[in-house]
Design brief:
Elements (H helix, E strand, L loop, with lengths): L8 E5 L3 E6 L3 E7 L2 E4 L5 E4 L1 H4 L9 E4 L2 E2 L2 E2 L2 H16 L9 E5 L6 H13 L4 E5 L1 H8 L10 E6 L4 E7 L2 E8 L3 H16 L1 E2 L2 H11 L11 E7 L5 E6 L1 H24 L3 H10 L1 E4 L8 H9 L3 E3 L6 H8 L4 H10 L2
Parallel strand pairs: 1-9, 9-10, 11-17, 17-18
Antiparallel strand pairs: 1-2, 2-3, 4-5, 4-6, 7-8, 11-12, 12-13, 14-15, 15-16
Length: 339
Amino acid sequence: MFGLGTKDLGIDLGTANTLVFAKGKGIVLREPSVVALQTDTKKIVAVGNDARNMIGRTPGNIIALRPMKDGVIADYETTASMMKYYIKQAIKGKGMGGKPYVMVCVPSGITAVEQRAVLDATREAGARDAYPIEEPFAAAIGADLPVWEPTGSMVVDIGGGTTEVAVISLGGIVTSMSIRTAGDNFDESIIAYIRKKYNLLIGDRTAEAIKVEIGSAGEVEGLAPMEIRGRDLLTGLPKTIEISAEEISGALSDTVTAIVDAVKNTLEKTPPELAADIMDRGIVLTGGGALLHNLDKVMSKETEMPVLIADEPLDCVAIGTGKALDHIDLFKNKAKDSR
Ligand SMILES: Nc1ncnc2c1ncn2[C@@H]1O[C@H](COP(=O)(O)OP(=O)(O)OP(=O)(O)O)[C@@H](O)[C@H]1O
């Protein structure tokens, strides 16, 4: 399947989703970052979509969990096992010649020790060598921003666990900010709102579905009410209610404000020449959170800057990680310098 020299991989190890990009092929694997384990033996029962379908539905001896949360590794042995599983999947049956180089984009809150563990797991899974890449840098490459040129580009990557804001010029990050407020917080706010207002308990997947369908920053025009099912906390029985987009928009507003404030704070720290470049080109949103209805408009109004959503925002980091393979020598040198 892979030709010689075209088997190197880029991996976006995200808190919500893991994507693998194969050089010369594009994205070859896209699965949720979820693992199902046997509670007593810790043996892995399922990974990715299969494991995700088990969330909230497992018997007592199995747990389905997200080994990364809030942009950090909550369970690092499981993260390493998941990573190995995905790499093996990606390189399975494609053994032409030597082992692949792998570029890995890890959550920004990861510690140096955890990063080393992830890179070691990558090597153990069959990589010739593995190099880390910073998430906003990968997002900017994936969004086709001119990161290597002497001009300012601003990227805001809104993932599941973290929002990364960065201004990039000449192949480096000039100013950046990372906050642990992103897609998961939208879901949590929806759960909390529905519990408080309706005494109804809903699961993570329902909350995410509500966000995707009728979640919005501000304006809700064109978003119809939605029927949702949960468990009535008073009777203990299943119940269906209808909720409006206005209510959900209200529930999401604090999280939206936190993200917009992070962008404003980063702009305040941006050198004026680069800020002028960003004014011309616009702020580019990547990550799944970029798809929240109206977030681009609210951000543009609040920052008084043009704001654009990248093509395929969910894929930008993986594509950028893969494209960075073309500049692998730079990353090899960086790795040498930090050893
Ligand atoms: N249409 C949509 N509207 C709003 N949010 C969405 C939409 N589609 C996906 N999301 C959200 O995007 C988030 C996942 O985005 P992404 O895959 O970029 O994150 P990640 O890279 O796994 O996380 P991180 O960058 O924090 O490690 C989830 O919270 C998901 O619910």
